[in-house]
Structure formats: C-alpha cells, structure tokens
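Appendix B. Extra example for self-study. Work through it before the problem class; the solution is given directly after the inputs so you can check yourself.
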Amino acid sequence: MSDTEIRLARLEARLQALQDHVAVCQVIARYGPQADTADTYDRGLKVGALWAADGVYELAEGWAGQGPDGIAGLLDNDVHRALVRDGAAHIPSAPHVTLRGDQATAINYSRVYKHVDGAFVVWRVSVNHWTLTRTDGGWKVQRRVNRLLNGSDEARAVLRAIDQAA
Amino acid sequence: MSDTEIRLARLEARLQALQDHVAVCQVIARYGPQADTADTYDRGLKVGALWAADGVYELAEGWAGQGPDGIAGLLDNDVHRALVRDGAAHIPSAPHVTLRGDQATAINYSRVYKHVDGAFVVWRVSVNHWTLTRTDGGWKVQRRVNRLLNGSDEARAVLRAIDQAA
Amino acid sequence: MSDTEIRLARLEARLQALQDHVAVCQVIARYGPQADTADTYDRGLKVGALWAADGVYELAEGWAGQGPDGIAGLLDNDVHRALVRDGAAHIPSAPHVTLRGDQATAINYSRVYKHVDGAFVVWRVSVNHWTLTRTDGGWKVQRRVNRLLNGSDEARAVLRAIDQAA
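Solution. Structure tokens for the complete assembly:
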C-alpha cells in the first residue's frame, strides 16, 4: 500500500473505534428514558429492543430476563408500573468502555430515584457490567449484570471487573 | 472524485459528526458549574451565554426565559441565590444525542442537590429535552425543556422523546 | 505538502484530539470502581495508578496525597474500608474537558452514596478540578482538587474554573 493508503486505513480504523465507543454510550443512555415510560408490556418491548435476540438482563442472582420479550416481562409488574406512574428516574453514570472488535464491555453505576410524597428518594444504587455486541441492527446488549451496592461480595466482584478493562 | 478523495471526504464527514456529538455534550456539561455560581445577574449571563440569542429555557409550563438575558433573569431570584450561597449541585446525566446537520437534540436527566444543615438533599430530579443549533459561536441551546419527574403526563411525554431519537 | 497530505494531517490532528478527550473521560470513569473496592493498601495502589508519579489528590485544604503510594495511603483508613465493606458508590458526572496538547483539564461533579441500614444516603456532593498529563503510560492525573459543595468560597472557586475552560 502507498503511504496515503496506509494513513487512510489507520484513520478509518481509529474513527470506527471512536464511533463504536460513542454508540455503546448511546445504547446505555437510552435505557433510562425507555424504562421510565415502560408502563405496558408493549412499551417494555422498547426497553427489550436494546438487547440482542438472546441477550440477558440479570438483576440479581436467579432473577433475569432473556431476549426483548423476556426483558419486557421483567418490567411488566406492579412495582415497575408504580414507578412510572408516580415518577421515577433510572439514571446511568457515564460508562467506562472497552472495545474488542465486535464486542464491547462497559462498567457504570446506575441509580433509581423515586418520587414519594412530593420528594425524591434514592431507592437503588447499583453497579452494572455490560457486554455488547455489534449486530446488523447496531450495537445491542448481550448481557447486563446489575448488582445493588449493598456491601455484598457479588457487588464488589462486578466493580472489580474494572481491573480487566483496557 | 478519486478513491482517495472519496475516502477523505467520508472521513471528514464522520469526524465532524463525532466532534459535533462531543461539542453538544460539552455545552450540557457547562450548565451545572455556571448555574451553581450564578449568584448575580452578571454571572447568570454566563449561564445565558449557553443559549442562542432567541433560545428558550422552559422550566415548567408557563415558566420560561428567552435569550441570554431572559435566562439570567430566570436565575436572578432569592431561591437560586440561596442555593449558590448554601451549596448546591445541578448535575446532568450523560446525554443521548441525535445529530441532524446543524441541529441536534439531546435527552438527559438532571438533579439538583442542596446542602441543608450539613447534609445533602436530592431536591429535584428532572428530564430534559434539548434542541441545539450550530452558530458562528459554536453549538448553542435553542430550547431546553425541563420537567420534574413527579409522575405527570408532561414529564412522561418528555421522556418519550427518546422514541424519536436516532 | 499536497492537498491530500494537508487533509490527512488535519484529520490525524482532529482525531487525536477526540481520542484524547475520550481517554481523559475513561481515566475519570475508572476512579469510582477502583475506589469502591479499595479495602486494602494494595487495592488502593490501583486507585493511585490513575495518578502521575508526582500527581496530587487534594481532598480539602491541607488534606492531600501525592503519587500512587500517597493516594493509596489516603484511602487506607477505617472510614474508607467501612464504605467498601458496607456498600458505597463514588459516582462522577460526565466531565467538561479542555485539551491543551499534552495537558488537559476537566471539571465535573462527584457524589458518594453509602449504604446504611438497608437504604442509600447521599453522603458527599463535590466538585472536582482535574489536571491530566499525557505520559508514556497514557493519560494520568497530575492534580485533582475536590471540594465539598457546602457553600464555601473554596467550592465556588473550583466551580468557577469553568469560566476558563475552552
């Protein structure tokens, strides 16, 4: 290849990596607004659409949904509908992202605030370990593990995933 | 065009989009530190400078400011000055951004924490729908709609703007 | 230089700036998960590794650590170990970043949530002024000044650093 072609190819690869980084952040930023309006199974499917066809959302050991419909099902309950009705916010922190070709991992925090008696309560503070995969429909969540930061060994194990993040 | 010129033009367009994405995030990240030091009308003008000349900040139905001076006026009141004096933090979440040439929209959450009797209280948790425009002075806010997440239909309508976000 | 060479050089410089911006955000995003698992001096060194060899973390006037080992020492105390044991989250907001060649500054908020009696308490809300430097080992923190947003003049002075941020 000519010098120009080498430089073009390098630029294209570096730019692709930046676009992937931003795209992963955008998927994560969509979750909150979709979740905070998911007061029906159909709207829950819009949350589920962030996941790959066989993607998993694991909220705690033994409590998980798989695939867009499984994730819509996870949110289709009275507790979640009350959050949407009374006012709530699922707010992510800006993630740390590691790209490996068509796979990515991300680590971030999330909080659920809920509106109770005219005030806001910090209901849940969690850490998330995301695995995402590039698909024909863009980046999708392959697995999201969420653990409440309640002092459990499990929560610290998810936080320590940062040690392996490039 | 030659193959090289085509690749250069594509790279330039993709890079511009990434720069625009980052620039929009930077405008949003400036709001908090400017607002949390706006204890005079003049310092409120520094907040207002984030908006376009005819840009609007709509804090609730019927409560809005227009243009840099209108936004400085919105903050020029005893409640806001007490926040700055006693300690407060207007903290945005990382936004979801959609670019359309010289226009952009962004959706994010924001919280206002205030310092009361030596402790911190979560005073407001809101959703924001931003419209930004490219100007000679860089990206400016054309409209920011902020709604408290108190369970109102209006707040859910702002959150549902994510459905139209590319 | 040819027109092609000029365009390639411009693209390379713009891309480098975007990569630097993202790299600075990634350093800041690593702090929380490292701090929230730093229950030994050795794990505190992983937090310290985010700093340059002579980098400073100033938590309050007269309370600071220098270098990776100094920062590990800052966290090596009963208060911090209790946070890690009982559950805590050091959560940053998405920073505003200003690049100047091999130096960068960033301004953001941070909060410490702690888990107390099965609930989450917002314990600290602060502003941070980061100075980072490019090293052979990537971007490192040269200085982080953290001030509690308790209404002090010092805290407002750190927030006002946004006025100088490009």
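Self-check: The mean pLDDT of chain C is 97. If your reasoning did not lead you there, revisit section 3.
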